[in-house]
Amino acid sequence: MSSNKSFSQKTAIEGVRHILVVGSGKGGVGKSTLSLNVSVALAKLNLKVGLLDGDLYGPSLPRLTGTLYLKPELNQDKKLLPLRRYGINLLSMGHLVEEESPLVWRGPMLFKAIEQFFRDVSWGDLDILVIDLPPGTGDVALTIAQKVPVSGGIVVSTPQNLSLVDTKKALNMFHQIEIPVLGVVENMSSYKESSGKDVSLFPKGQIDIYLKEKKIDKLAEISFHPHIALSSEAGVPFLESQVDSKEAQSFFQVARKIKSHLFSSN
After folding, report:
1. Among 62, 184, 227, 248, which residue has the fewest nearby CB atoms (within 10 Å)?
2. What is the pLDDT of residues 223-256, one digit of tens each?
């Protein structure tokens, strides 16, 4: 790991007050779905919110928001204008290239694209820009940490120890690249049967023990709900279609804790 000097030359994004990154040590834990729904929840808590899809190789935001065939326009300064949906500003590499077109890019092109998302996009006046990181501990998170001041990060995990191993890596990465950890979200923690009984989808691992030992906040436990997957397929955030559900309230719980962390002293 390089010295702290690598993270000293950061430039804020024009108009953006706070940057929050959402990461996971592995794929398939629902990170992008959580990023979107928490962003919508933050907007419903009267914050001005943007959401950037940081997964350049496997962008999912266009499908999650029903904006797959929409393209951002340029303003008079030749900067990209994010799309506007569900009360938030959105942008993804998937809005700029065809869905079936692979990005066969080496590192320098990746770094340049990330820089352009920060400098060549007119994000507007935002309280918070949420960046949905790609899974793992690769170049994108490191580049973001070097380029812009990040106010905090959250990590998404599922309950079992197989996921906890990778969650620890993501948390350690945030520590190494000097991103304050706001907490961990345990996703798909259980499933409620029609009888009302909660059933575990995964074997319960040692995530609670680990978080308590490290004094890391568990921001929420979010249950699995079939309509979350259906909403994702339909391109409508779950928080829009099932706003009064228990799971929706869990997304609001995460959003309120983020708001408290970032804005309580402002």
Report:
1. 227
2. 888 888 899 999 999 999 888 888 899 999 999 9
Q: For residues 52 and 129, is the Cβ–Cβ distance under 8 A? A: yes
What angle, 0 to 180 degrees and rounded to 10, lies between the N-to-C axes of helices 161-176 and 207-214? 20
Q: Percentages helix, strand, coil for the chain, rounded to the nearest 5?
A: 40, 20, 40
**Contact between 163 and 155 (Cβ < 8 Å):** no
pLDDT at 28: 87
- Asked if residue 6 belongs to a domain, the reply is no
CA distance 93 to 110: 11
Instruction: Yes or no: say if 140 and 4 are a contact pair by the CB < 8 Å rule.
Output: no
Q: What is the CATH number of the domain that holds 115?
A: 3.40.50.300
Residue 32 lies in a domain: yes
- 211 within some domain: yes
> Residue type at 140?
V
Across all residues in the chain, what is the average pLDDT? Answer: 89
Domain assignment present for residue 127? The answer is yes
Residue-wise pLDDT tens digits, 59-115: 999 999 999 999 999 999 999 999 999 999 999 999 998 765 655 566 678 888 899
pTM: 0.91
Q: How many domains does the chain have?
A: 1
Residue type, 40: V
**Torsion angle of the four alpha carbons 62, 60, 116, 121, in this order, in degrees rounded to the nearest 10:** 30
